Amino acid sequence: MKKLVLLLLTALQSAATYAQVTKAPNGIIVTVKGHQVGLFATNATFCLSLNDSAAPLPIKSIFIDNQTSSPYTVISTPPLYGIKTAFGKLLINTGTGTWSLYDPANKALIQDGSYQFSDSATAIIYPAAGTCYGSGNITSKDLTKDKSGSAVNNGLAGIPYLWNNTGYSAFGVSVDDNAPATWNNAGQQLTWKYRAKAANLYLWPASTIYDGAKGYVQLTGKPKLPPRWAFGYLQSQWGWEDSTYIANVLNKFRSHKLPVDAFIFDFEWYTTTPDYTVAKEGKEGYSDFNFNPKLFPHPAKQIADLKAEGVKFIGIRKPRLGNNLLLDTARKNGWLSHPESDSRDLNFSNAQARKWFEERTKPMLQKGVDAWWDDEGESYYTCYYWWNTAQYHLLNQVRPNYRHFTINRAFSPGNQRFGYCTWDGDIQSSWASLADVPKDLLNFSLAGMYYGACDIGGFHGTPEKETLVRWFQAGVFFPIMRSHSDLGTTARFPYLWGEDGEAAMRKALELRYRLLPYTYSLGHEAYNTGAPIMRPLVMEYPADPAVANMTDEWLLGKGVLAAPLLNAGGKRTVYLPADTWYDYFSGEEVHGPKTIAVDKQLDEIPVYVRAGTILPLSPVVQYSEQASTAPLEIHIYPGKNGRFNMVEDDGTSYNYTKGTTRTTTFVWDDAAKTLSWKVSGAYAGKNTYKAVKIVLGKEEKNALIGKDGRVNF
Known about the structure:
Elements: H1 2-18, E1 21-24, E2 27-32, E3 35-42, E4 45-51, E5 73-77, E6 80-85, E7 88-93, E8 99-102, E9 108-117, E10 122-127, E11 132-133, E12 144-145, E13 152-153, E14 156-157, E15 161-164, E16 168-173, E17 182-186, E18 189-194, E19 198-205, H2 209-220, E20 233-237, H3 243-255, E21 262-265, H4 299-308, E22 312-317, H5 324-332, H6 351-366, E23 371-374, H7 383-398, E24 406-408, E25 420-423, H8 431-446, E26 451-453, H9 465-475, E27 481-483, H10 498-514, H11 516-529, E28 534-535, E29 554-556, E30 560-562, E31 571-576, E32 580-583, E33 589-591, E34 594-599, E35 607-610, E36 614-617, E37 632-636, E38 642-648, E39 662-669, E40 674-680, E41 691-696, E42 699-704, E43 709-712
Parallel strand pairs: 20-21, 20-27, 21-22, 22-23, 23-24, 24-25, 25-26, 37-41
Antiparallel strand pairs: 1-2, 2-3, 3-4, 4-19, 5-6, 6-7, 7-8, 8-9, 9-10, 10-18, 11-12, 11-15, 13-14, 15-16, 16-19, 17-18, 28-29, 29-30, 30-35, 31-34, 32-33, 32-35, 36-37, 38-39, 39-40, 40-43, 41-42
């Protein structure tokens, strides 16, 4: 017994020599060489937390969703201390100060990590290996990355996140959310930099990009779905002339059978003159929070009339004020983001400013505005987050339980919690700009922005007809499909572009609406798992070097490969990875890996579907909420077993977050040539599909859904 006590005392003395370990919420705090280091388990991730000026509890950040503790056990084998969870372990050596990350199988993912403090900065460093993805599009439009940025700009975002193909993801949080962490992979080491004497580095084992995305949304928040109508086509322009013009455009869309779900209005909907020449003191009589009577003399009735035709109202908003009296109020209360400059931008992070903004915006929502287009909010990194916070809160007051949707020119981490779209800025009307769009949107997908969009046709200039048509065709396969144009250019209304142009764009729009059951279900998949709607091929074929940085073709979900024409002339090559593929339009079977040359007419799009895909297709409708008695079509692409969860809900509320959905799980048994399905969930609205036509090649069979079923071929 005396010998045992002596051994215990010796062990305790040895441990005291190395470190002092303190239990803390969600983890431990260890003293290492005079510095306190926190190791925490939260939101299914590890957090390495450094703070050289106070207790190193994890830094609070709006980027992190509601924090939940992850079960863990403490590791205490001096000089190693750490925490172990179901998803791995994080260790620090209190003798050397080095730290390591391990996966659940005890494989080392990061070893010999270190950290450094200086007077006003912190760095976290570890040996570089592998290839990184993520971090947005501000430093590069390539998918593979060697660094991140710390700002937002016109259609650009730098996100302090990465996934590394050696098997882990990382996300940095700094003391100031408006001065985000950055990482740089150079000189055989990866360095995270923070502009303060404190740092959080969240880490989690992630063997695939899917695993990285799942961890990212567990940490920063699930991507809420926009309303279902936002998955349709959204028509925007700068230059709506008056109320008669709006009515005529609506009539043209409906009479020409051009599907559309929303009109998006620029400056002219609320003011007679853009504010770009307004001085810092503001302009007397400037309209910031009203309807322009030239366009909307009777806004409530006119918006109701639009909705009766299936068209929603989206209005542009700017983060600044133009009216001199409103600016006086904002300045006196300290509500401007940069009061020392000529800026007229509101500081939406101020709770009083948000409340004041909401009070003035409320009458516009009460008259029927459905959603907002938030432009030019890059004055500080978190502007769009706080701006959307105000709009989200106000919408919940005026229209409780109605889904928030905004289109924004940049994003920061966590903004996906709003049901938030980002478009890639004010781009040129050129083939080069068209080719850049999927680069931007795929980078958005890899950085946590699930609803990417662009100005179809480009903003500046008037495109050639062929360019616009090909842009529409590419837009079919973007998460959000929206066109837009500058003053003085030809509007991107399909009926203005000749009979052949209109016919080709109509065909593209009809395909967009046919795909709605599929893309909307992918939105639910994104919410539940973090898997993006628009995916780079590398997500499905990580071992194929040909797709490691491919951006001119991509996947919708796992099964639909879009390879639209991004250049003049109708010709391109298409790479099909190792799999069996079917031409969506002809049904021709192609075995990959293979590069094929295609030559397409103006109204044709290269689209391929992977073997094992179960593809639900809607009848063609003119807007997403239009009722149809035609059956849902289920197209089966044989060669492999397949499964798909088609999710239905009311399309406008947040009830889906509480499980009020109807999920039809379709399963294809390739050997038995049998399609079976099971239906689950409490939702039973009148908009659910009742009948189904099942298509396998040239064979068709009819059935009823709403209950479990089976069809044999």
